[in-house]
TrEMBL record:
InterPro entries: F-box-assoc_dom_typ3, F-box-assoc_interact_dom, F-box-like_dom_sf, F-box_dom. It comes from Brassica rapa subsp. trilocularis. It comes from the Eukaryota. It holds the Pfam family F-box. This is F-box domain-containing protein. SUPFAM superfamilies: F-box domain. PANTHER family: BNAA05G37150D PROTEIN-RELATED (PTHR31111), F-BOX ASSOCIATED UBIQUITINATION EFFECTOR FAMILY PROTEIN (PTHR31111:SF113). SMART domains: FBOX. Residues 13-53 form the F-box domain.
Length: 422
């Protein structure tokens, strides 16, 4: 009773309200606010918070190598570009939910650009680089192992799959544990030079040689299976299997039709059917019909994402980024010199909570938390209150009763804040 008389205007904010505010903050603010207290750090590093953060509506983002000056990307109202400036990012990679897996000879690196966490694992004795005689124009990887990377939808763990058919060596890496385990051999071989795609907890490999198949691997049960329903046989070796907005898709160039069409087939997982969703004419717009026909014939195209407005974004092996409007059949080149990696989402999940990575992050991939180690606890609280006030004013109307209540509580916390965390 005495405390109520001393602080009649004291208001407390529930943990649910605090989480609702924090989950909507910019990424840099979240990384800073982890240093406020152990409770906030634990909350922001939880899987639940990371999943909620990814579900908050944001502008479509793409991950690219280098910087804006190098990419010559002038901007677009429907997308944002996130640049990764490190040497490892120039190598072919696999991505899932904003986390990047970079297979290298003898090593597999896993990077979370959002947090700066960087891990490197030895890939085993049979993981080496192909020689120049095994390379072909449609190669996406130059290693002798068929690689896969994705997230177990049940446990939330990220896993790496490696299949070396020449040595009958099949293994899986649980990034959370950091150890390789043996796998039961797959029912047949797939091409090691093609990228795989992870869609809703399963990895898919497209094999166009020997037999036309799509091999799937469930990351939770860790079992292989065949995709029984297949789209029509593809026209070229340049066909690519991708994750297009959480749907399995295959892109291929059809040279049989007039105009050199980019065909994109998308699978309906519930009905187990395939539908050609896009057929984009490239002749005279992307591929000239005279002169450099042989050079353009070897160009491969990869779908990226579909915007809220319905525009399709895709890129090619000549470092060009395109935007296509299916309603108007308008196709434009957004950049003629940009190395796009994949769609990007801000992911706050910790890759390896059991230990601190021994390998230092590559240049340009530093963790955003390191610069705050010398900031006093009181200054952090001032920074928190300032950012939260801005967020509250944006989320709620200034005249709303909860706005003044939360603001008053933040001021009380600032006035009574200790000089160091508990």
């Amino acid at each position: 009773m005495g405390e109520d008389e001393e602080n009649p205007n004291q208001i407390y904010i529930t943990n649910d309200v605090v989480e609702e505010i924090l989950v909507r903050l910019p990424l840099k603010s979240i990384l800073r606010f982890k240093t406020v207290s152990r409770e906030w750090r634990s909350l922001m590093e939880s899987r639940r918070f990371a999943d909620r953060r990814m579900s908050v509506p944001k502008n479509r983002k793409f991950l690219a190598v280098g910087n804006q000056a190098q990419s010559r990307f002038q901007g677009d109202e429907e997308i944002e570009m996130v640049y990764l400036e490190c040497d490892e990012a120039t190598r072919p990679s696999l991505t899932c939910d904003g986390v990047v897996c970079i297979p290298e000879p003898n090593w597999v690196s896993v990077l979370n650009p959002s947090t700066g966490e960087f891990l490197r694992f030895c890939s085993g004795p049979f993981h080496y680089e192909n020689d120049m005689f095994t390379e072909v124009w449609w190669s996406e990887f130059n290693i002798n192992s068929a690689m896969g990377f994705g997230k177990d939808e049940i446990t939330g763990k990220y896993k790496v799959v490696s299949m070396v058919f020449d040595h009958n060596h099949y293994q899986i890496l649980d990034v959370d544990i950091g150890q390789w385990r043996k796998l039961v051999p797959p029912p047949y071989k797939v091409d090691t030079r093609r990228k795989s795609a992870c869609v809703k907890g399963s990895i898919y490999w497209l094999d166009l040689f020997g037999i036309y198949k799509i091999l799937a691997f469930d990351l939770h049960t860790e079992e292989f299976r065949d995709v029984q329903v297949l789209p029509p046989l593809f026209h070229s070796a340049a066909a690519r299997i991708v994750n297009l907005d959480d749907r399995l898709a295959i892109a291929d160039i059809c040279m049989m039709k007039p105009g050199w069409n980019l065909e994109i087939w998308i699978m309906d997982a519930q009905e187990e059917t395939w539908c050609m969703t896009y057929s984009i004419t490239l002749a005279h717009r992307v591929i000239p019909m005279h002169g450099r026909v042989i050079e353009e014939w070897s160009t491969m195209f990869t779908p990226l994402a579909v915007s809220k407005e319905g525009s399709l974004f895709f890129y090619d092996t000549k470092k060009r980024l395109f935007k296509y409007d299916p309603e108007t059949d308008f196709l434009c080149c957004l950049s003629s010199d940009i190395c796009v990696i994949s769609p990007f989402v801000e992911n706050l999940v910790r890759l390896h909570p059991g230990c601190v990575p021994k390998t230092r992050p590559p240049r340009g991939c530093r963790n955003g938390r390191s610069c705050l180690n010398q900031i006093s606890y009181l200054k952090r609280l001032v920074l928190v209150c300032f950012h939260l006030t801005l967020v509250i004013s944006n989320l709620l109307d200034e005249a709303h009763p909860i706005t003044s209540s939360i603001s008053a509580s933040l001021l009380f916390v600032l006035d009574t804040a200790p000089t160091k965390p508990n």
